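Q: Focus on the chain.
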Amino acid sequence: MSEILKIENISRSFKTGNRTLEILKGISLDIKAGEILAIAGPSGAGKSTLLHIMGLLDRPTSGRVLFRNKDLYALPGSEQARLRNSSFAFIFQFYHLIPELNILENILLPHMISNSILNWQIHRKALKAKAGKLIDKLGLSGRVFHKPNQLSGGEQQRVAIARALVTDPEVILCDEPTGNLDTNATMEIQNLISELNRQEGKTFIIVTHNENIARWSHRMIHLVDGQVTNNPDESCRDKSQ
């Protein structure tokens, strides 16, 4: 597999009064296209901060993030925004669905926001058809016009996954995607991620406290006090599974 993301000596610190708080301390990491990488570790280890830096939601204090050999933080802001909206997608523990919108509208929201009114009118039919295919694939066909509060937690997370996929991103960054779900729903989401990875070659980077999720991934890194504590090339399972 070819390399899709390269993290080079990333550090992140914050000023708090007279103190400097170091969140990440010189992290380097290579991520292959089409792999499922888990980032595990205790609360406060810097996992979410690292994820946000990879997805252009936060800036490193020092170091580089290369996406297909492009230095992301050396790019103009407009190009960063374009890549953030097209090549990356986020799935969070809390689904962040809009309660007033139905499932179809929630899934289409990234396109509604990123397109002008004219472009939306021109492409609306095709985008709705694309969303419809995702709805069918994720087992939500009977829920199209339901509101989020009419769905289970697992169903809401599947809607959030469909919303992430609707822009056809290359890298999907997941921050505790099963942290709010029971065991059965967790297994559903885990199986869904495996299927999307296997069938469509999507790259998943998953921050998790769940050791089962971490061990199930292709590869796991352990973050403690802002540093990687294991061999980042350690494989968790056969990538053909």
Q: What stands out?
A: The mean pLDDT is 88. The CA atoms of residues 56 and 84 lie 6 Å apart.
